[in-house]
């Protein structure tokens, strides 16, 4: 399992300590980390506008012009559901942490035992990373739940991903998804289309009908293979 974690603290030594503790947790819990560190709320927000694909935001409270609690409120006002963990030396804000649905509130100096307990709870509520696809669009990085995908379509040097939430035009090549998505759940119906078997409604000789009523072309030589994969998928439950 891999977690993308943003660490926000205006003290470099605290950022270094938190990273060390998180890595130690990962070594005993089969978790790897992709860290991004920021020394102010403003620096984090500037980055977040282009890259929102974080699993956890660990932040101090007393920092510069925009403190950590103000940052948390802003994120919630914008309907961002990123998990929040406050790590601070101040007890004054504990009650406010509940207002922004924070995962927890850990006091400095941070005790490893306490931090690990919080991370254990976070791990139990976090979906496995392998059900997500991380993609780059014109608006920045996005995280797409694989189960929400209907199909993928090759579009020159890019890929169009049709999902429950809408369509995403991403910079990754179609071949990238052919290699990275599970062959147990995704199958090619045509040289330019890859469909999510879990979201197929029906199959005929000309096309595949998805649960949202959209249709995907199917080549004649693929009909038997796709039908068999469809049956086998539901046999596995």
Automatic annotation (TrEMBL):
Per UniProt, the keywords (alphabetical) are: DNA-binding, Phosphoprotein
Q: Where is the HTH LytTR-type domain?
A: 135-232
Picking any one GO molecular function of the record gives: phosphorelay response regulator activity
Domain of life of the source: Bacteria
Q: Which Pfam families match?
A: LytTR, Response_reg
Q: Which residues form a coiled coil?
A: none
**Residue positions of the PTM 4-aspartylphosphate?**
60
Q: Which InterPro entries match?
A: CheY-like_superfamily, LytR-like, LytTR_DNA-bd_dom, Sig_transdc_resp-reg_receiver
Domain Response regulatory residue range list: 4-123
**What protein is this chain from?**
DNA-binding LytR/AlgR family response regulator
